[in-house]
Amino acid sequence: MFAGHFGVAAAVKNKAPELPLWSLLVSTQLLDIAFVPFNLAGIESMEPIGEGGYAHMMIYAFYTHSFVGALLLTILAACLAGVFWGKKSGTIIGAVVFSHWILDLIVHRPDLPILPGNTGNLPLLGFGLWESVPLSILIEFLLIAVGSFFISSMLFSHQVLNAEEKGLQLDLS
């Protein structure tokens, strides 16, 4: 899942218009953004399964995508956002960051560790929705559609309010 995470950002923007959209988009992808330097350093990796492609990757992100690693990134992002935009916004940013891990838990094969580095060699987590490519594409599409609906309705309501403030009448037919 990649684009589906952005659907979460769009849906949240509707309920938290005070937050910049870019902050929500970055928050939904923060775990993957953190993955890049770990991947470049050879600490984390991705390997194609068969011919590769959508949902045909084995991801070894034992630090950035571990449960505890995701919680640490969530807390870090929430605290940073709280400094800039206040406690409520920090909490929202934190929730958006952690939503990435929740969605990954649903779609990933069992490749998400509980502890960073898979310390303790505990069972890996993942419900494996990617095993059904059509279903995982449908879920991703639905997340994007819901997010698009929410952000569109927010933008439309702002248009109407701005027009009313200026004494304009919108032709909605």
What would you say this structure looks like, in words?
The protein has 173 residues and is mostly helical. 61% of the residues lie in helices and 5% in strands. The chain is built from five helices and two strands, in the order ααββααα. The chain has a two-stranded antiparallel ribbon. β1 (45-48) and β2 (57-60) form a beta hairpin. α1 (3-15) packs parallel to α5 (133-165). The longest helix is centred in the C-terminal third of the chain and has 33 residues, at 133-165. The protein is globular and about 45 Å long.
Give the biggest beta sheet.
2 strands, antiparallel
Q: Kindly state the percentage of residues in helix.
A: 55-70%
Shape: globular
Total count of helical runs of at least 4 residues: 5
Q: Write down the Rg.
A: 19 Å
Walk across the major sheet and give the strand order.
1-2
The run of helices and strands is: HHEEHHH
Secondary-structure content class: mainly alpha
Any low-confidence stretches, pLDDT <50, length ≥5?
none
Residue-averaged pLDDT, rounded? 87
What attributes characterize this protein structure?
single chain, mainly alpha, globular, 173 residues
Topology:
Blueprint (H helix, E strand, L loop, with lengths): L2 H13 L5 H20 L4 E4 L8 E4 L6 H19 L1 H21 L25 H33 L8
Antiparallel strand pairs: 1-2
